[in-house]
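As a warm-up, study this chain.
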Amino acid sequence: MFIKQLSIFLENRRGRFTEVARLLGKENINMTAFTVSENSDFGILRLIVSDTEKALQALRDNKYAVSEADVICLHCPNQPGALARVMDLITAAEIFIEYMYAFSEGASAHVIIRPDDIEKCVAVLKDNKLELLAASALYRF
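Now compare it with the structure written out below.
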């Protein structure tokens, strides 16, 4: 139930994200989910793509600093309190969340989670009958 996520380090200058989007588009790689965080010198573009290996190769061939990490994608209702209930379970299990981001469509939400102990987090969520999505399920959005 792990999903591969790419993290690309980008210097803060105009057009840098555009270059990545153009490169991936040219390679016929779809960006399914992404988030950007930044400080004064650089940003980190985290994204889930339709073809991780092909994206890694294309980015590295074009001199981007890119790394790969495992994350979890939780499917939950898009309603008030749903995420709080999940976070209560994670907190009670003493799992630290390094970062997370989400997207929703209608009645459903998808939360990308990067916990410090991914196997323990998966076990806690599954034990509580929560739905985790495989990478292939994300590509239909």
